[in-house]
Specification:
With 470 residues, the protein is α/β, with parallel strands linked by helices. It is built from 25 helices and 6 strands. Helices cover 57% and strands 7% of the residues.
């Protein structure tokens, strides 16, 4: 039983990583749990499609469901695939062919059904073509699926029928007048990535037409490009961008990870940066709230620079969703309590000013300081390499803290650096998460931290309905 639970928890921990389009990095753990506990894997796949942020993992789930020897898995994979955009379906097929080395007949049937559904809705098909032409051509060609006459003309013959978006893109490229270009973009709803490659000169009219067609998520994802094309230089256009960003706070499909990336990758003004921070906060809150007093303890000893940066980002994420007391400490052989004026990353970056990697390591010192200051928490999150080489040791400080407050602490350890196994032996009841140093994966911890324990998270996952073909 312990081994089975550990295997499930290992898969949960693996979801904290971002494979960055290399699905082979998570292939082994998906194969292990799918074989060891197929029922749990089915529920987890459905749960992650609804709750997860990392597209790579969604693709990995569907890939392993489609190639499973279990019939219910294949049916679930069939259903989950229907909701993916073409570029993800194409990547799944490529992964099956090149890495898993098989594409079952049922998978080809699933893709054929997917493509037929696209063709039946001309507007949806045209939108898919303008965004993912290469992916669609790959799916038809590599699986030898015969396209309908309209799809054949658009994708393979280069003779798109009048009224199609592909024909409109040709007109857009030929139009020389900016007002005419703006009208074509607006009327034909040409997506931003396609339209931007067909125009020579950006004008406010074209910018407004492009933005009118963009979803809030697309605006977040393309902020760097919008900035490069000078769209923030026109007050009217900038106002539309900011309105789309305000909408992104409550829209499904907007990733907190994308908002974090946009903030760090672009040089935007203060008001836009603030809106991105609000998007991050709102999207994190939608994943759950932390309802128990919580402490985040960040190792700042020598060589722990990456842990300090992770601490800033995780403090920002947690402070946005915690409903009660939240304490943050950085520590070497001494603890430093940190407080921010807000929940944004910028606020926590300022709070961490003066915190640099140096010194010995007493992982228990912060908890001992909290005990003496009567700062009561029920959950402690540690970011550390486990090198507990100075007193008070964490195990001793924890025992004293639990005694004084008459409680049982939940301890979640985010393992980083050259991990010291002695810490695991001394603190065997803690929950351990291996972190690979990818800062953008940290918000994926939120669903786990929002539960009272990993057991509660497992119960939530097992309550998720598994889709099945009817």
């Amino acid at each position: 039983m312990t081994t089975e639970i550990d295997t499930r928890l290992a898969l949960l921990d693996s979801l904290q990583t971002c494979p960055h389009r290399d699905l082979a990095k998570v292939q082994e753990v998906h194969q292990t749990i799918a074989a060891a506990d197929p029922i749990f894997y089915a529920h987890l796949a459905a749960w992650y499609q609804s709750k997860g942020d990392v597209r790579d993992h969604k693709e990995a789930f569907v890939s392993h469901l489609l190639t499973s020897s279990t019939e219910t898995h294949r049916q679930e994979g069939y259903m989950l695939l229907q909701d993916l955009p073409p570029y993800q379906v194409s990547r799944i097929i490529k992964f099956l062919k090149e890495t898993i080395k098989k594409v079952p007949r049922s998978t080809r049937t699933a893709v054929a059904h997917y493509l037929a559904g696209l063709e039946q809705n001309q507007r949806r098909f045209d939108g898919a073509v303008t965004r993912s032409r290469k992916s669609l051509k790959h799916l038809y060609a590599t699986l030898r699926i015969k396209p309908g006459d309209r799809a054949q003309a658009i994708l393979f013959e280069g003779t798109p029928p009048d009224g199609s978006v592909s024909a409109a893109v040709k007109l857009l490229a030929q139009a020389k007048d900016s007002a005419q270009q703006a009208q074509i973009i607006l009327d034909k709803k040409i997506p931003y990535p396609i339209a931007i490659g067909a125009i020579d000169h950006m004008t406010p009219a074209i910018a407004l037409a492009l933005l009118a067609n963009m979803t809030p998520a697309e605006v977040v994802n393309n902020l760097g490009s919008l900035q490069r094309f000078g769209m923030f230089d026109h007050p009217e256009v900038k106002a539309i961008i900011e309105e789309k960003l305000k909408q992104a706070r409550s829209k499904k499909g907007v990733s907190a990870l994308k908002a974090i990336t946009a903030r760090s990758a672009t040089q935007l003004d203060e008001s836009t940066q603030q809106l991105l921070g609000e998007i991050t906060d709102a999207q994190l809150k939608s994943k759950g709230r932390i309802q128990v007093p919580t402490a985040l303890l960040v190792d700042k000893s020598s060589s722990m620079g990456h842990a300090i940066e992770a601490g800033k980002r995780l403090a920002s994420a947690i402070s946005a969703i915690v409903d009660t007391d939240f304490f943050v400490y950085a520590f070497d052989s001494v603890g430093y309590q940190l407080q921010a004026r807000g929940t944004s990353y910028d606020s926590w970056e300022q709070a961490f000013q003066g915190i640099y990697p140096s010194g010995m390591t007493s992982i228990g010192v912060s908890l001992e300081m909290m005990r003496r200051q009567k700062q009561r928490v029920e959950q402690v999150i540690l970011i550390t390499d486990g090198g507990d080489n100075s007193h008070p040791l964490f195990a001793n400080a924890k025992a004293q803290y639990e005694h004084d407050f008459n409680l049982k602490l939940r301890v979640v350890v985010i393992q980083t650096g050259n991990w010291s196994p002695e810490f695991s032996r001394m603190n065997s009841e803690a929950e351990y998460i291996q972190w690979d140093g990818d800062y953008y994966s940290l918000p994926n911890l939120i669903p786990q931290l929002a539960q009272a324990s990993k057991l509660d998270l497992l119960i939530e996952i097992m309550s998720m309905p598994v889709p099945c073909r009817t």
